[in-house]
């Protein structure tokens, strides 16, 4: 019920006092009584509402990064979103997990302690199926993971931990590292059963497969940086990072990005009829002479001239010049 009365409630209250229906002295005594608020000592809330909202911002960003990373790696439609953020005792979280499941036990340097990254089997098998060339379809019978599947899952877990680091970078420079992979939740004890943890649950959809991903962060691990979990610190950190050092880091990461390079010997056009009657040994005439340079394309842009050859028994190209239309393309793109 709201503490602020609207005009109708005020009028009703005044008329009740005037008619004697309400005893003013009795109402005053009731208001002086202490209000009791229930408190569960088994589940004490460690974080304020503002800190929970900041965690939502962090993991909303994390969901977007996960979506981009796995869409690229799996070449499939992927979507992540935050479902809930709860404060639970560690035993409650462990007892809620299926068996078997995918549990990554990780350390979070420079903080002390460990945290858990859990991927539901439905999502785990969907990712494995997609990486092995399948369609990422959901499984009907959950089973234990093979040794080969565990190796693949460790690689996937490292992808996600790299994204986790990026999402938290506005709060603290953290270095999550995978220690081991486990399938039985009851074999893991990162904190005592009664210790409070923050559970971030993400809904994941990969192709036609849906499932959950849970991140279990013990409060004792986050305690040194809890004071930074506020919107003001988040936005101020974002502004502070637009420095020459930050720009240099971005340039370094950009320089390490992989790009697709194609050497095009030539091209031509065929009719459908010509295409249908092609046979082994047929010669297709291209639009370039034999002595002409190949076009070296980065993305869809012709950037360099190159000569095709071999090196150490591998096909290779040697750049011999810059494409004549390089600067024209740059001007158009700008």
TrEMBL record:
Key word Cell membrane present: yes
List each copy of the Flagellar motor switch protein FliN-like C-terminal domain by range.
253-322
GO cellular component labels: bacterial-type flagellum basal body; plasma membrane
* One MF annotation (Gene Ontology) recorded for this entry: cytoskeletal motor activity
Membrane-crossing segments per the record: none
In the bilayer, the protein is annotated as:
Peripheral membrane protein
Has the keyword Membrane been applied to this entry? Answer: yes
InterPro entries (alphabetical) = CheC-like_sf (IPR028976), Flag_FliM (IPR001689), FliN-like_C (IPR001543), SpoA-like_sf (IPR036429)
Keyword entries, A-Z: Bacterial flagellum, Cell membrane, Cell projection, Chemotaxis, Cilium, Flagellar rotation, Flagellum, Membrane
| Localization | Bacterial flagellum basal body; Cell membrane
Query: Which superkingdom heads the taxonomic lineage of this protein's source?
Result: Bacteria
Which GO BP terms apply? bacterial-type flagellum-dependent swarming motility; positive chemotaxis
For this chain, the family text in UniProt reads: Belongs to the FliM family.
- NCBIfam families linked: fliM_switch (TIGR01397)
Enumerate the PANTHER family for this protein. Answer: FLAGELLAR MOTOR SWITCH PROTEIN FLIM, YOP PROTEINS TRANSLOCATION PROTEIN Q
Q: What is this protein called?
A: Flagellar motor switch protein FliM
């Amino acid at each position: 019920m709201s503490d602020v009365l609207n005009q109708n409630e005020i009028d009703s209250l005044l008329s009740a006092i005037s008619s004697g229906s309400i005893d003013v002295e009795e109402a005053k005594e009731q208001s002086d009584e202490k209000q009791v608020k229930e408190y569960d000592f088994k589940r004490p809330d460690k974080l304020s509402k503002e800190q929970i909202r900041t965690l939502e911002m962090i993991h909303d960003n994390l969901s977007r990064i996960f979506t981009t990373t796995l869409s690229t790696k799996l070449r499939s439609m992927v979507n992540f979103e935050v479902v809930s953020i709860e404060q639970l005792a560690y035993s409650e979280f462990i007892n809620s997990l299926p068996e078997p499941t995918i549990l990554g036990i990780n350390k979070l340097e420079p903080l002390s302690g460990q945290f858990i990254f859990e991927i539901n089997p439905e999502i785990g098998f969907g990712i494995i199926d997609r990486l092995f060339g399948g369609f990422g379809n959901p499984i009907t019978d959950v089973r234990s993971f093979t040794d080969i599947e565990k190796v693949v899952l460790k690689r996937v877990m490292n992808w996600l931990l790299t994204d986790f680091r990026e999402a938290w970078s506005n709060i603290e420079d953290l270095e999550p590292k995978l220690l081991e992979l486990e399938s039985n939740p009851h074999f893991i004890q990162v904190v005592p059963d009664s210790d409070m943890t923050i559970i971030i649950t993400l809904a994941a959809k990969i192709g036609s497969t849906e499932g959950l991903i849970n991140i279990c962060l013990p409060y004792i691990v986050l305690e040194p940086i809890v004071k930074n979990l506020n919107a003001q610190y988040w936005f101020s950190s974002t502004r502070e990072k637009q420095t020459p050092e930050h720009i240099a880091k971005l340039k370094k990461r950009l320089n390490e990005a992989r790009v697709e390079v194609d050497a095009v010997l030539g091209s031509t056009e065929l009719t459908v009829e010509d295409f249908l009657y092609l046979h082994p040994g047929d010669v297709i005439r291209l639009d370039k002479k034999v002595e002409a340079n190949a076009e070296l394309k980065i993305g869809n842009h012709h950037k360099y001239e190159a000569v095709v050859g071999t090196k150490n028994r591998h096909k290779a190209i040697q750049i011999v010049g810059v494409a004549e239309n390089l600067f024209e393309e740059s001007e158009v793109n700008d």
